[in-house]
Amino acid sequence: MLRGSPERELAAWWEAEAVAATKAQAAKEQVRVDPGAAGEPERKAGEEQPKEPAPAPPCAAEEGDARIPPRPPPTLPVSLAKPEPVSGLCPHGKSRIKGRSCKRSSGQPDEYCSLRPVTVDSSKARTSLDALKISIRQLKWKEFPFGRRLPCDIYWHGVSFHDNDIFSGQVNKFPGMTEMVRKITLSRAVRIMQNLFPEEYNFYPRSWILPDEFQLFVAQVRMVKDGDPSWKPTFIVKPDSGCQGDGIYLIKDPSDIRLSGTLQSRPAVVQEYICKPLLIDKLKFDIRLYVLLKSLEPLEIYIAKDGLSRFCTEPYQEPSPKNLHHIFMHLTNYSLNIHSGNFIHSDSTSTGSKRTFSSILYRLSSKGVDIKKVWSDIISLVIKTVIALTPELKVFYQSDIPAGRPGPTCFQILGFDILLMKNLKPILLEVNANPSMRIEHEQELSPGVFENVPSLVDEEVKVAVIRDTLRLMDPLKKKRESHFPDIYMDRKHRFPPVSERMSSLKLQLSKLSIVRSQLLGKSLASKENPPHSDLAGASQGNANPDAHLPSICLKQVFPKYAKQFNYLRLVDRMANLFIRFLGIKGTMKLGPTGFRTFIRNCKLSSSSLSMAAADILYIDITRRWNSMTVDQRDSGMCLQAFVEAFFYLAQRKFKMLPLHEQVASLIDLCEYHLSLLDEKRLVCGRSGTSSASRLQPSGTPQEAAPPAPPAEGRPQPCTDGAHKVSHSRHTVS
């Protein structure tokens, strides 16, 4: 039987009618509830009870990712099937009772109309505005393009968390994310993880920070060349604050770095250049994947099922002194290649200079490539990168939104730029805090005259990412689920298996002729007695608002695969210790008193490490890190300096172990002593309260006992077996 055949439609309609009849029969057999208890005014004895409205048609069965609303058999005339308003019903399908009316007309919620649309402030959306407008329109939400005096549910910012002063709702930016994904900060965060787990973080090229590590860069390159004279590397220099390919260039030797000029005022990162990338049509390309960081605590990560592939516009050749300056050959940045005469704009997702990532995977699959393995490696790269970024993000978060103070919850879409090597190993190029969400491109009509032209490839990918991000962050979803649990019930609980439905198909079809004749009779009679169409409309209005949308394009990867990656979160646990001893809410640097308190409370001082030695350690490390940072507004020890001091203490206390086991053991020790301290404070607080109550004379009013000392947040026990880790490769499906 074909998908859209009349037999299938009639069978589906018959099944819907059967379900509706079952529900109506069950409703009649229910025990009547006291009218007053049900929220209805009590009626006097002998007063006629109002007739119950006809049951609303049931929700149709899902076909793939979309639900088809119930409809009468296609053989019925349209004029007969069209409902008309019925007297005695309000415009929203609720029975009119004397003295009562539909509350929606007066602006008050009722059981049918209580759910308002989600409100979105798009006044700061900037370049993502067009895609955002389409997404809001598809979701049937309410947009405020010029802001709103009253709070909105969601605020969409184009640049950073601080685009608006927000005290409630949800905002699509995390505080500190822009600073965290800059090239220097990202390289330092990944380097810490490479020191702990070198095999797990080999997806990021070896990096040096300029100008601070220029001498180290020169020495290490010379040492490798002396050991292997055949090694002829190429390096790529990227300005720290650069974007869209600005200021990037290639070199063959450290002496080629442009030390003069702006390097002191504009720091940069120099990395090993990937000389053997995967080529398609003899062109180098990279992948832009969209990653949703839904929350920090607990950590939730989603990856879009499709992304963009940006192509160079000149055939690739391995770097040589002759082609180092050919940016259209070596740099995949869209903002650069669009100015090439070879750039191809295409409405097809599988051709042109910008294509969908799914079209690339399809092409690789046709050549026998294991696509699941490629996706598994990419997912692993994304999770590990986010794990490297989250510790310092927590410090930024508690600084801008301290615990106990009003503030919004945050989420953010990140753009991961990934390069596939010739052996299909993914390499992380960079992470973008503000990935472009434009869905049009500039087309030059004449020299110097440009016009914005819609890009179907961008719209297909980016609108889905924004729309489904909003669906995941929907603040009213739980309310709708509580109001209409049957609509949001899982598919397998709402409908029997397909095999069961098909087994009774012959029986249903045998009754179609009888049902059809009955329907014709009812339809003819409906001219005189119109059906309760308003009730049906109300039922459809309350249906699942996502029924007309495709399935969500964002796939959860964490905490789904948390068991495979939790052992990597050592620095995250160090950040919890760091935040605990910051002392003052809103600060981001640890003072000398806080560091001494950390040493004392965790019982780290001993004959080999006196408190004076701990003070010297604090001064030395803090002074060195402060000299490397441009921002000198706050004095004290930053998180990365604290991590370095923690590594030093772990190596002194637990010798003859790998670094990650030393660090894990010291974290366990600190968390153990702090948990004992928390228990002691809790017991002291209880004993003080009970002693005050016993000393209070009888017959006199008791005064409020002084509050117990505030117990600091108890750290979570170590359950991930971090000190028993083997460097095995972890894959996800």
Tell me what the structure shows.
With 733 residues, this protein is an alpha+beta fold. A hairpin with a 2-residue loop joins β11 (279-280) and β12. The two termini are 35 Å apart. Mean pLDDT is 77; it is low at 1-7, 28-113, 490-503, 523-542 and 699-729. Among the domains are: 177-205 and 274-480, D-amino Acid Aminotransferase, Chain A, domain 1 (2-Layer Sandwich), CATH 3.30.470; 569-681, Recoverin, domain 1, CATH 1.10.238. The chain has 24 helices and 21 strands.
Summarize the structure.
By secondary structure, this protein is of the alpha+beta class. Among the domains are: 177-205 and 274-480, D-amino Acid Aminotransferase, Chain A, domain 1 (2-Layer Sandwich), CATH 3.30.470; 569-681, Recoverin, domain 1 (Orthogonal Bundle).
For CATH, the homologous superfamily of the domain at 177-205 and 274-480 is named as: ATP-grasp fold, B domain
Q: If you average the pLDDT, what whole number results?
A: 77
Topology-level CATH name of the domain at 177-205 and 274-480: D-amino Acid Aminotransferase, Chain A, domain 1
State Rg: 32 Å
Give the helix proportion (percent range): 25-40%
Termini distance? 35 Å
Q: Tell me the major beta sheet.
A: 8 strands, antiparallel
**Beta strand %:** 5-15%
Instruction: Supply the CATH class of the domain at 177-205 and 274-480.
Output: Alpha Beta
Q: Based on helices, strands and strand pairing, what is the structural class?
A: alpha+beta
What is the CATH architecture annotation of the domain at 177-205 and 274-480? 2-Layer Sandwich
| Counted beta strands | 21
Shape: globular
- Poorly predicted segments: 1-7, 28-113, 490-503, 523-542, 699-729
Number of continuous helical runs? 24
